[in-house]
Amino acid sequence: MPSSKASADTALPLTLELEDFKGDFSFDALFGGLVNELLPDFKEEESDSAEGGDSVPNGNLRSVSGTGTGGVPLFPAVDELLSLFKQSCKELVDLRSQIDTRLQNVKKEVNAHDTKHQRTLGELEKGVDGLFDSFARLDSRISSVGQTAAKIGDHLQSAESQREMASQTIDLIKYLMEFNSTPGDLMELSPLFSDDSRVAEAASIAQKLRSFAEEDAGRQGVTSAVGAANASRGLEVAVANLQEYCNELENRLLARFDAASQRRELSTMSECAKILSQFNRGTSAMQHYVASRPMFIDVEVMNEDIQVVLGDQGLQSGTTNIARGLSTLYKDIAETVRKEAATITAVFPSPSDVMSILVQRVLEQRVTAILDKLLVKPSLVNMPSIEDGGLLLYLRILAVTYDKTEELAKGLQSVGCGDLDVEGLTESLFTVHKDEYAEYEQASLKQLYQIKIEELRAEALQQQPEITGTISRAKAAALTTSPQQQISVTVVTEFVRWNEEAISRCTLLSSQPSTLAANVRSVFTCLLDQVSRYLTEGLERARESLNEAAAMRDRFVIGTSVSRRVAAAAATQAEAAAAAGENSFKAFMIAVQRCANSIAILQQYFSNTISRLLLPVEGAHTASCEEMGTAISNVEGAAHKGLLQCIDTVMAEVERLLSTEQKTTDYRSPDDGVIPDHRPTNACTRVVAYLSRVLEVAFTALEGLNKQSFLTELGNRLHKGLLNNWQKFTFNPSGGLRLKRDITEYGEFVRSFNAPSIDEKFELLGILANVFIVAPESLASLFEGTPSIRKDALRFIQLRDDYKSAKIASMLNNIMTES
């Protein structure tokens, strides 16, 4: 039996090729292709044995080549597969050797090709370098040839230019000789100078001849007087004839231009303008055109302008009507200039220059004529009356005309004005008015203030009641201060309104921040002076009323040794003086309240309007704040004096009530020991009622620190006055209880002052009243409990009715000695 290896080599020849490994190689596919021919037989045998029930699990195989039951191999194709795999490995090794050999050959070929390629590249680089050198030489040659050609062209062009210039010079000399033939004789000139169809050419040649003659005169050192001066010998006649001819030609062209302008033949006008532009750059033509406009030469137009603006009433027509008239007139002027601009653009070769002349003429002639009629500067010495508008009318018209003229200037600027500084020219029209504007504004404010004060005084005199025999002196005294003389917040508001209007004019007329700040500050200073003066004088008038009431009180102070009739009359007059004092007090408090409101309006106005205008300029805001502080301080000084007088007035009435109403029996009742009277004394009731009534207006009028300071001072004065009053009386225990009730009543009232120091003083008074209530032997305990009242208590103890009988003096000496 042949061996399994030999049988495998003969039965399973291999066909492995390199093509099997190219492309998308798959080992599974290669392996399947090798073994699929052997595996099907084995599968069939396995299925057959499975059907006979003799299948053996793989786990029972002892070896791959072992035998099963009855000597049958379990895997009969294993030898063929082993042989196949070995042969495959051998062929694969051979294939790898072939591939390695081929790879070595390919590497050698690649190296050979690479060497050859490097050699070729080197040769190419040398060739390219040679080409670049050739191109550089060629470019240099081309550049040299081009430069030579350019120089030749320049020489040719220069030669041609010189030839043309020589030809023109020959022609010019020929024409010049014609002009130099006979003085004043222009009849023998060439047809060129008389042919209307060749006017442009004739004008050009004439200008060249003039330039040539003037240059010749300059070379000879002879100056010219009017553009056609004495030239060198031989050209004098030519220059004179040329000047005459040019003047004649220019006049003829202007006449032709005017005729075309009348017929609105823009093409002819444009042709003439182009020719005339050769004479003085066309300046004479442009000025001639502008000067011939109807709005500059028609007197009716000028009169209509004045009529449109001022109407039949002139300056008295009011700023509103003047503003409306100016708007109408300036709108008409702008529309006229706009129409002229269309014509100028179509006619003149340099329309911007013509527009510059036109707009300048409009502003300097037509607008200035209107301003001269409107802005008649009044005298600051003999100011116009308020009935005629005063200085305010002039300032309002100035602001209106400036504003409307600025609008016109902007409109004209939008149309086109060339290089003309329209804004600067417009400003120059108002320079004479703006230089003294601040002085006029201040003078106007002072005039308004003076007139207003005179009106207020006249109204006060008309409304003040006449004191006749039918009115008693007491009633007359009560009416000494009339309401019309009081400070009015409305008047201060009017001052602010005047100032606000003036500030708006400052903002309009002041272009520079520094100028604006200076004008605003000067105008605001006027307001500070007006408000300070008005409020201070108002407070002084209110103080005069307080002084009059005080004088009335002093006149009716009488002694004790008078008759009952005299005393009754004096009491009546004292009541009248008290009523006058109360009225004066209320009037002054109202004045203070209105001052506070006025100052608040002033400060609010400064914050909202003035401050933002001063801040851009260093130091202006601070200086103005200091001035405002000084003005307010002056008002506060007058108010402070008046408030002190108000306290004097109140305390005078309190002292009068205490002196007339406080009875000896109030604190030393003959019925001591019976049920005490817990009601306050009549004097206390009257004083508290008076204070409640008179201070009601003070609580409303005063605010903040002013209110606190006033009430504190009044509380101190009231405390002192009560102490002085009580020292006039003697007290028994029941009187001490009633005093304590009075002190409680006073304390409850002063608690409305919201002044802790005053509350403390009246609380100590309540404790002090105990010196009249306790028994003599208990006085020492009062000093021990409240040592702060010892000084006042020692004085009050002497007012006890038992001070001598109870020998309290020796008792106090012992207490003081022990302490």
From TrEMBL:
InterPro entries: Sec10-like (IPR009976), Sec10_HB (IPR048627), Sec10_N (IPR048625)
Taxonomy of the source species: Eukaryota, Viridiplantae, Streptophyta, Embryophyta, Tracheophyta
Keywords (A to Z) from UniProt: Coiled coil, Exocytosis, Transport
Pfam families in the cross-refs: Sec10_HB (PF07393), Sec10_N (PF20667)
Protein's UniProt name: Exocyst complex component 5
PANTHER family, sorted: EXOCYST COMPLEX COMPONENT 5 (PTHR12100:SF0), SEC10 (PTHR12100)
Domain Exocyst complex component Sec10 N-terminal span(s) in chain numbering: 79-195
Domain Exocyst complex component Sec10-like alpha-helical bundle: 201-811
Keyword Transport attached: yes
Region entry Disordered, spans: 44-64
GO CC terms of this entry: exocyst
GO biological-process terms attached to the record: exocytosis; Golgi to plasma membrane transport
Organism: Rhynchospora pubera
Transport recorded as keyword: yes
Protein family: Belongs to the SEC10 family.
